[in-house]
Specification:
Blueprint: E1 4-13, E2 16-26, E3 31-35, H1 42-49, E4 57-62, E5 65-66, H2 72-77, E6 80-83, H3 95-101, H4 111-116, H5 119-139, H6 154-166, E7 172-176, H7 184-199, E8 203-207, H8 211-217, E9 220-225, E10 228-233, H9 235-239, H10 242-249
Parallel strand pairs: 3-8, 3-9, 6-7, 7-8
Antiparallel strand pairs: 1-2, 1-4, 4-5, 9-10
Helix pairs in contact: 3-5, 3-6, 5-6
């Protein structure tokens, strides 16, 4: 079974065909990259997969279940996680509380228990905090455990957001430009982290402009061009594909 199976996906906005009859699949436990020039349809595709948009036609299966047009919160419960190109961190909260937010779907909620702060609720909160601290260590930001998010450098905030996404225990994690705005050292740290996430069994779908990162970490790559599939294959297959070289990497490459 594929982690993600897209078939005949299409959507248009005001006559502009943003995604056109697109089909591809993502193998479980792999790192699958999506690349393409600006305007290729990457953001639209992400929004379709994550339930922001409903397609005009086609299907999206997540671990064998049809989910096209499903609300984002239901997709999160089904095992789909996401990080964003632009940081979605609560700067007025502590770093560890930001990560704990990611686990809210798995926590039992009760007005009565919340009002009385029952022992079971306190135990659940403590376990959630311990898990958040473990995830902060996993992504490499344990040193900020007692810090406010506003005190953290940008590169650490990007990894904090990944920790928050992992707190929901996703089976598939969609990462939207995790290296955007990072220097070479920080990008290398993100590359290492992506590999570690995949090694835990979580499938990663990666949208990124940094081609060195893409070629270094991906098992397979989907290349989009004007909303259509230009190529799909291993890094070597995509790297040597003449249409990809011409349309994206540059003819002189």
């Amino acid at each position: 079974m594929s982690a993600l199976d897209v078939r005949g996906l299409s959507i248009a906005f005001g006559g502009v065909k943003a995604i056109q009859d697109l089909s591809f699949d993502v193998h479980q436990g792999t790192v699958h990259a999506i690349i393409g020039p600006n305007g290729a349809g990457k953001t639209t595709l992400i929004n379709l997969v994550t339930g922001i948009y409903a397609p005009d036609s086609g299907s999206i299966e997540l671990f064998g279940q049809e989910v096209a047009g499903t609300a984002p919160e239901r997709l999160a419960r089904a095992g789909l996680g996401r990080t964003f190109q632009n940081l979605q961190v609560c700067m007025n909260m502590s770093a560890v509380d930001n990560v704990m937010i990611g686990a809210h779907l798995s926590l039992a909620s009760s007005l009565f228990a919340g009002m009385l702060r029952t022992p079971s609720l306190r135990r659940a909160d403590a376990a959630c905090r311990d898990r958040a601290l473990e995830l902060m260590a996993f992504v490499g930001v344990a040193q900020y455990a007692t810090s406010d998010a506003s005190q953290m450098p940008y590169g650490a905030l990007k990894r904090l957001e990944i920790a928050r996404a992992l707190a929901a225990s996703p089976k598939l994690l969609l990462m939207d430009e995790p290296a955007a705005g990072l220097n070479h050292t920080e990008t290398a740290e993100i590359e290492t982290l992506i590999r570690r996430i995949a090694e835990t069994g979580t499938t990663v779908v990666l949208v990124e402009h940094d081609m060195k990162l893409i070629m270094g970490v991906s098992d397979r790559i989907l290349v989009l061009h004007y909303g259509k599939r230009l190529a799909l294959g291993t890094t070597q297959e995509v790297r040597s594909h003449p249409d990809v070289i011409s349309a994206y990497l540059g003819a002189e490459a």
